[in-house]
Amino acid sequence: MENFKEMISSINLNDLLKIFDIQIAIAVLLFFVIFRTVFSKILIKAYYKIIKSKKHPKDSSMYRPLNIMFILIGVYCMIKILPTSAQVLYVMNKIYKLVIIFYVMRILTSLINTDSIFFKRFFRDPTNKAVNMFLCQIAKFIIWIIYLFIILAEMGYAKDFSGLVAALGVGSAAIALAAQDLVKSLISGVTILTDKPFVIGDWIEVDQYQGTVIDITFRSTRIKAFNNSVVTIPNSVITSSYVINWNRLTSRRFECVLNLSLETPSEKIKKVVKEIKVVLENDPKVIKETIQVSLINITAYSNDIKIVLFLREAEYVPFLKAKQDVLCSLLFLVEKENIDLAYPTQTLFVKRKEEEQA
Question: What is the pLDDT of residue 326?
């Protein structure tokens, strides 16, 4: 009994307080470690309730960063409770602030995603996937630039945001001078993404290139050509030349010439012209108001009937099918009227000498 009293009396009150602080610090850390998932789910559910979405918290890209952030909060609280020198505490505060802000930035960038509910609800342009990607990349770039400035500010290298703006201005000018072609393509890329002369999936024609647009970036546009080769065209080339977007067509022009033989009587030619008009007007694939059928020329070997019209099929493959049907209808009509189609011919007259004929 006396030994126990001596042991108790030998223990300093400060030591007891230190032990007690350590126990509390460990308990606080364990509290945040154990309940981090609960806190994360509460915050994510509140977020989805604000934006009126029923997505499950575990499907959220914010879930993991929030878990780590709550563990860091527990570590920070533990350090604050433990007896620590003012210098160590100052350094820890700096580090803790930067780490917490880092995970806040990560949560923000997880929201700025083309597949995220937040982005689809407030910023998404459903008509252009490239614009969506462009907005996401720009927003993420701005967020991490701000974080970089915060780091510089904490280290004492930046005083206000005017320094950041000036630095970005000087840096942009230096880049523009060093890589003028690249900057020109980037500006052209922004023009393409905002004006939207074409989107991914459109069939376009640029100079001598034709194909389906498969990707649009800041610097270039990639198209898949007829032979399945991928052509990369700088955006500066696209904006400085003409672009034909075949997907924007509502109809396609059809034109052909029937070469009837010279032996075809004029009355029959008039009859054929009228019958062609009737056949085309009854075809649902043909726009009636655009039909033009007329005898345009008489050559050395044929009477030429020109047919011009517009077909309702704008897409390339259906247009080819409709064009084939129209041509078959014309051939059937010519066969029905027993009219021969002309082809280039040449008659050669040979004059013999009288002596040879004798």
Answer: 92
